[in-house]
Amino acid sequence: MATLPVYRWRLAPEGLATRRQLRAMGLRPGGQDVAAELERPRRRRAPLVAYLYRIDLARPVRPMTPARWAALAAANAARRVCPECGRDAGYRIPPSLGMCVPCADALPSLAA
Prior knowledge:
112 residues; alpha+beta; 4 helices; 26% helix
């Protein structure tokens, strides 16, 4: 197995970009393999690693269709419904609580 080339922070060659950089250009990796890694050193911790993709092999971002917009809206709406009381909380339910804040405050085990 061949290893990937590793570049230091801000020293990647032209023609390579991260996922976020591709998205800002209106592109996506499009199924291509990772071309290289970018490492940002940190003190006393492991370096941050970002994967780089070739820009010339990237494909345009797929447009949002009405069905995809509807599916996204339904998924976001489901994340706002409290499983305890069944109300629409008006915000995304925190995964750490698993329920809306009033329901979590009412439980003595979580409040203490």
